[in-house]
Amino acid sequence: MKREYPEGPIVGVGAIILDARRILLVRRGKEPSRGLWTFPGGAVELGEPIELAVRREVLEE
């Protein structure tokens, strides 16, 4: 499978969510890391403030 790459850089965000002694992790659903555990996060949309992007990505998870 050929992988395509964007022409420019993509800005991404991630969050570490702590609740008492627990940490929120999500399992990736897309290749190449399908099935691996990671922190919630994703790409920032054009013109979106970083703080709002983090909140949106966590809620999407």
Q: Could you explain the architecture of this structure?
A:
The protein is α+β, with helices and mostly antiparallel strands. It has one domain (12-60): Nucleoside Triphosphate Pyrophosphohydrolase. Helices cover 18% and strands 23% of the residues. The protein is built from 1 helix and 6 strands. A two-stranded antiparallel ribbon has the order 1-6. Strands 2-3 form a two-stranded antiparallel sheet. A two-stranded antiparallel ribbon has the order 4-5. The longest helix has 11 residues, at 50-60. The protein is flat, with a radius of gyration of 13 Å. The chain starts with 11 loop residues before the first strand and ends with a helix.
List keywords for this structure.
alpha+beta, Nucleoside Triphosphate Pyrophosphohydrolase, two-stranded antiparallel ribbon, 6 strands, 18% helix, flat
Mind sketching the topology for me?
Elements: E1 12-14, E2 18-19, E3 22-23, E4 26-27, E5 37-38, E6 41-43, H1 50-60
Antiparallel strand pairs: 1-6, 2-3, 4-5
CATH fold name? Nucleoside Triphosphate Pyrophosphohydrolase
User: Approximately what portion of the residues adopt beta-strand conformation?
Assistant: 15-25%
CATH level-4 homologous superfamily:
Nucleoside Triphosphate Pyrophosphohydrolase
Which CATH first-tier class would you pick?
A: Alpha Beta
- Average pLDDT number: 91
> The biggest beta sheet, please?
2 strands, antiparallel
Alpha-carbon distance between the two ends: 27 Å
Total beta-strand segments: 6
CATH architecture: Alpha-Beta Complex
Structural class, by secondary structure, is: alpha+beta
CA radius of gyration is 13 Å
What is the helix fraction of residues, given as a range? 10-25%
| Number of separate helices | 1
Counted up, domains total 1
Strand order across the largest sheet: 1-6
* Uncertain ranges: none
Secondary-structure element order, as H and E? EEEEEEH
Q: Globular, elongated, flat, extended or rod-shaped: what is the shape?
A: flat
